[in-house]
Write the structure tokens for this entry.
Amino acid sequence: MTSYCCFWKPRQPSNMPVLQINHRELISFQGMLGLLGRPGVGVVVIQGIGGSGKTWAAKALYRAAKTSNLFDEYIWVSLSINCSMRKCFNKIAASLSCKTRDSLSVESTRTIIKEYLTPRKFLLVLDNAYFTEESILEYLGVPDPRQQRLGSKIFVTTRTVRARSVMLPNIEIMPQPLTYEESYDLLREKIGKDISFAHDLISYCYGIPLIIILLAGALYDAPTEETFSELVANAHAALSTKTSFFNTMQCMVKFGYHQLPSDNVRHCLLYCLIFPDDQGISVKELIWYWIMDGLLQEAVGFDEANHIGKEILDVLIKHGMVYLDDNDHVHMHNVIRETVSSFGKDMGYKEQSYRYFGNPIIKLEHLSKYSNRVSLMDTEVEYLHGSPNCLLISSLLLRGNYLLKAISEEFFNQMAGTLQILDLSFTRNEVLPHSISYLIRLRMLLLIGCDHLQEIRYIAPLARLEVLDASGCSSLKSVESGSFDRMVFLKVLDLSATSITSLISIPVSMELRHINLQGCPFLGSEATYGVSKGGGIRNLQLGSIEDLAAWMGMLWLPCGLTFQLSDRFGMKVSLDANRHSISYVYASDTYFLKCLGEDSPLWYNCFQKFQIVISPTMDSETMDTDGQVRNTDSIFENSYFRAKHFTYSTDLTRYLEINGTVGVPSDLDGILCHAELILLKRLVMTTRFSDLIVRSMAAVRELWLENCDHLESLLSADEVQALSTVGNLSSLCKGVEDVTSFSCLKHLLLYCCPKLLYLFPSALHFPNLKTLHIRFCDVLKRVFDSSVLGEDTLPRLQSLQLWELPELTCVCGGVLPSLKNLKVRGCAKLRKIPVSVNENSPFVTTTGEQLWWDSLLWDDESIKRWLLFRNWGPLLPHLATEG
């Protein structure tokens, strides 16, 4: 872990309390955590060169504070050398729990910030600050913690001495270089294997974390040892010229850049340059940009391109070129940005210029001369007048211009032939200009977070549009009728968190894959019916699912979908790549599934294979995941683990889990009659299952019960396979009269049922049972009554295990004619075993304690010589689990 040098520097006398620390006193990261609660410390500055771990330390402190709930308010603000004071001010305002109106003046907003924070204990982190102004806190409206005296803290990370000095910190911290051992451990951790070659390379890294991470990224995925050795030699050459810290970092960035696996990956990295350096880029939107800009042309379709985009992003992260924050946004380190910007200029990925132009139209025209991708984001422009001469641009990003109120009607006139990507997100436009209808080549239109936009108009001619995202437009009420009639290529439609009331003209696109209508309180359920039954929806998110039953009957649903159904979070349907084409359902209540009747055609369509989990305890984290509910290979972990011990266990593809409900709901007949494996977990119940529920289990081959503490009795199903960990189970198949045969059952495991007295009534038969394992049932007295003959009830039983059954006195009467393996442990009261011999009998191997064996009673002592007895030894308990 990085160590830090903490020192105090003399300054002009001040009335502020200053904590004096010895010059260059080393403190650990735990010591830094202690600053969060140390009295007299209000402002802390972490100052050092880029890549030394400043932001990492600040993030770790920030997370630790939130985890420990040390403050009332948490504010993280990412800054940059291009970030103005006004922009910093607005970022703080936007981060507060109290929302400020964007129409307020600077002074009014500053007053609101100060009044809100003054009575609260807050933690503010200003990351990568380049402040030069005095009285910076006063301008930002942030109370000085040293005057507030509530224990608030301000942490500032910076590369400049000037920013450090204007903050007047109580403590200044400078990250120390990693030691050799720490550098070695970090490099080995990132590469994922031992690195005996590392001595010279580590000495070239100066102990700077960013250099080590980039080195590991360049080396970690070498396909062969020969390639790995060649990379090591090249790394030596890249790092061997030791002139300065920063020069070495730049050399390492260039080396890592050239080691990226393809030109395509390099282009995807350089694309990040067109976004502001003080903001993260949404992963979802970044991949859309890549797709729409033609960087993923090798993909066959949109879904495949999206998958490839995720793989490329993963490569960039592993190579250390970008990193993810906690909100699923991508960031590029400023040292990396500064180094690769020259490559970007050569390839048409020019960084946004912050040099002032009096007329924004002139600025746009100037930028379009150097690149066909024009970025004019996060400026303070209020109006865009005229029609800029930008005939060749393919992408125009006007995102984040929070003061932009109007765009002239003719603005897009000269972009009609080339513009493919238009981003107007987070602007104040109330209407779209008419000239947007001329953008006939437009593929992506982003209007995210345009709070003042009330209607989407003039988009009907955009026949090539593939992505339309207007999520978060809280005032948006309608989309002009007929807007989607010609959009045969539309793949993504996101109108979530809007006030839209109807979608009369739902897209007819055969390509439509993703629809998000969550958080639309005024949207009626009839909207879902407009989706073409010939389409191929792969991701559908609805906020209202009251009429889900009718929707579920739609036959266009494909296999392999993941459903997430919740009262609180609405409905999500997504397609996740799984080679088994299994549909996954996670529901918080059973009424979502009432529509799935026994004869529903969906059982022969999207639910040919399924895993359904019903649990009322679903939370936001569960609902926000896009992955499968559980990985197929680890499904029902206990079941999977135990089933592997059964030689003939079948591969079942229809699973149902009911977790934490009151009994087994009676409205699941349709699912129960199709489920092959049923897991009942933590059920709150006082009586046995109803006959109706049991008879509905027409296809069940395995039934697992776990932690059903109130269960008193269980009626049988025709094909029960396993019963496990039933804390208060007192009788199995109690009172069963009409169910007399488990004809399909081959393997039965009964595990840890401490209150079970009697197992099976005499009416039951298991004609095909081959394996019976009973373990840890403290009061179980008998499996069958002694009057029940094993020849009739268990004619094919080959393996019998009886473990820790201290009260067991009887297995059954008669003999078990097919028995080959008998293993007994902790069954002191079992004095007779149902074995016999004749010319057709198998050779029976018996494992048990010697004392138990010697105390057995035999009707015919000669039988013992046909039995191979083995005493329990040190390894036998382990080996016995395989029998």
User: Anything to note?
Assistant: The first helix runs from residue 29 to 34. The chain is about 25% helix and 15% strand. Residues 781-883 form one domain. The mean pLDDT is 77.
